[in-house]
């Protein structure tokens, strides 16, 4: 039993080696430290459980009353399947009162055959009226071998809204448990050291995944692919740090072995290269997660919004024959070749004295979208096709452009325009031909008749494949490149900070006097990596991450 200490984590690290640790919450209950900041569990315990799980030790936390300071039940319950009629509905309960609740709901004075992790059949009754609520199954998960790390029960009810409502009401009436907040089960799993933040984010990604690639990515991270790499980096940094700090015992004047700094610097060099490779390449992992960005750009009235509506298969953007109709960016999410694609329609780009302040802002946003896009579809009205736009904004053109001549139906019926355009195509020195020479596809389509649209979609798919040809979540050695596993800007930012700290470490002079400062940089790098996994986590960050979870997860 460990008494409350602000620095418990250090004591834990250094002195505590036993296999089993029991922390009585009573020891913490007088401390204003956790009472002011946490409704249900002491921060120190959280820290302990992290260290404990890292060392395969168990942490048990209990309070005699099973309630928090404010007398709110610490046991939570929720419907974990979507509301509505279904074959089954799963209700989860987690916390100290699980077994008491089970006894009441199953009306079992005689002992239930409670083998953990076994499916058991039972009658569920209202303990107050004796009314029969459902014939159901349940599984008991004994702490700590459960999702949350606490005692848990999962009831598999018949999926009738009436059955579910009555069971939830009875659970609430017992006053032994309360309805869970969104993501609260997972938050308990995190606080009890069952999952780190990377895995929790992967779980959220899996639940929200829309494409097969996203599923593969989420499963990899849920399996610990990114976490393991981060732990490996942190452990290597920790070892180097330990060696350097050991040197401090020699004193500043002492003669040190010659190679001691070389060893520390060269091991950091390796980590530095690995992290740099992971963060400085294309953000392909984030692209799988967030979707590849396709921007539809061009002059006003060219048919950009019409094209977006065709790709989306529904009327998302307003289409009129008035130039300058679209002002805001209109976005739709599509799935092409198993990849999530975010397609954006933008305001027509033009320089005109009639352009008012609203349209000008729309044009600014369109150009911003263009610079941010992975693929650009530049649409022109084939009747008024010219290179004015590309001359004015040469940065629009690069190897990720598909050039589209729309309204081909009108050209086909106009012999002189048709001849004129064909001439431009054939002229070796024309601007259209220069696009072809740069391997930029120039496609003739008609959004009105649909001609050329399948070819445009094929071309778009081949452009997407170009971005994703590197994406293999499994190589021959069953490994996945780290850049594929970085799913969020948050990961990237922390890794960049860690990299900067390791680089600063490398710049220190190799003298004993600078060890203290140099070591501080390594500690900073470890801290940044710890922020990704949640070993160094702020309440705000946790609130943001768990906000996206549904109730019952
Ligand atoms: N004949 C013909 N008309 C088309 C075609 N595509 C679009 N249009 C028409 O062209 C007009 C402009 O279409 P929009 O899709 O609003 O054009 P836009 O590029 O989004 O225009 P802004 O939002 O003003 O920049 C509408 O009247 C469409 O019906 C086509 O392939 N053939
Ligand atoms: Mg438009």
From TrEMBL:
It comes from the Eukaryota. GO terms for molecular function: GTP binding; GTPase activity. One of its GO terms (biological process) is tRNA methylation. The keyword Nucleotide-binding applies. GO terms for cellular component: mitochondrion. SUPFAM superfamilies: P-loop containing nucleoside triphosphate hydrolases (SSF52540). It is found in: Mitochondrion. InterPro entries: G_TrmE, GTP-bd, GTP-bd_TrmE_N, GTPase_MnmE, MnmE_dom2, MnmE_helical, P-loop_NTPase, Small_GTP-bd. This is TrmE-type G domain-containing protein. It comes from Galdieria partita.
């Amino acid at each position: 039993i460990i008494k409350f200490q602000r620095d418990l984590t250090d004591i834990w690290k250094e002195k505590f080696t036993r296999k089993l640790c029991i922390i009585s919450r009573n020891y913490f209950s007088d401390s204003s430290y956790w009472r002011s900041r946490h409704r249900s569990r002491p921060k120190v315990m959280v820290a302990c459980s992290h260290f404990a799980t890292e060392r395969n030790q168990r942490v048990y936390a209990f309070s005699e009353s099973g309630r928090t300071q404010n007398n709110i039940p610490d046991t939570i319950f929720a419907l974990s399947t979507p509301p509505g009629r279904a074959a089954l509905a799963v209700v989860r309960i987690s916390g100290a009162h699980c077994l008491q609740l089970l006894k009441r709901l199953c009306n079992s004075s005689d002992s239930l055959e409670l083998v953990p992790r076994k499916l058991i059949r039972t009658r569920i009754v209202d303990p107050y009226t004796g009314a029969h609520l459902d014939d159901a199954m349940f599984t008991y998960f004994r702490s700590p071998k459960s999702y949350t790390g606490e005692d848990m029960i999962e009831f598999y009810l018949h999926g009738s809204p009436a059955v579910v409502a009555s069971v939830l009401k009875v659970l609430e009436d017992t006053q032994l448990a309360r309805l869970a907040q969104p993501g609260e089960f997972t938050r308990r799993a995190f606080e009890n050291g069952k999952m780190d933040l990377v895995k929790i984010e992967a779980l959220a990604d899996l639940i929200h995944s829309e494409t097969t690639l996203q599923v593969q990515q989420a499963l990899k991270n849920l399996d610990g692919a990114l976490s393991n790499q981060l732990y490996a980096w942190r452990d290597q940094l920790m070892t180097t740090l330990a060696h350097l700090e050991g040197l401090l015992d020699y004193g500043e004047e002492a003669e040190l072995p010659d190679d001691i700094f070389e060893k520390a610097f060269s091991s950091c060099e390796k980590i530095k290269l690995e992290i740099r490779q992971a963060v400085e390449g294309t953000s392909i992992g984030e692209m799988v997660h967030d979707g590849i960005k396709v921007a539809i750009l061009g002059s006003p009235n060219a048919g950009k919004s019409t094209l977006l509506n065709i790709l989306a298969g529904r009327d998302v953007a307003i289409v009129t024959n008035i130039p300058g109709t679209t002002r805001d960016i209109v976005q739709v999410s599509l799935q092409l070749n198993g990849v999530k694609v975010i397609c954006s329609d933008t305001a027509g780009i033009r320089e005109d004295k009639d352009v008012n302040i609203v349209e000008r802002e729309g044009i600014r946003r369109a150009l911003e979208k263009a610079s941010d896009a992975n693929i650009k579809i530049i649409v022109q009205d084939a009747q008024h096709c010219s290179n004015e736009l590309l001359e004015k904004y040469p940065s629009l053109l690069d190897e990720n452009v598909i050039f589209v001549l729309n309204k081909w139906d009108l050209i086909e019926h106009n012999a002189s325009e048709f001849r004129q355009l064909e001439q431009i195509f054939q002229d070796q020195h024309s601007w259209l031909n220069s696009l072809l020479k740069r391997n930029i596809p120039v496609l003739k389509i008609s959004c009105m008749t649909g001609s050329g649209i399948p070819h445009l979609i094929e071309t778009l798919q081949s452009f997407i494949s170009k971005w994703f040809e590197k994406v293999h979540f499994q190589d021959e050695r069953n490994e996945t490149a780290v850049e594929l596993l970085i799913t969020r800007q948050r990961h990237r930012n922390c890794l960049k900070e860690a990299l900067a700290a390791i680089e600063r470490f490398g710049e220190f002079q190799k003298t004993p006097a600078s060890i203290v400062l140099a070591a501080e940089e390594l500690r900073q790098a470890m801290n940044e990596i710890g922020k990704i996994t949640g070993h160094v986590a702020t309440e705000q960050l946790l609130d943001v991450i768990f906000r996206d979870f549904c109730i019952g997860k």
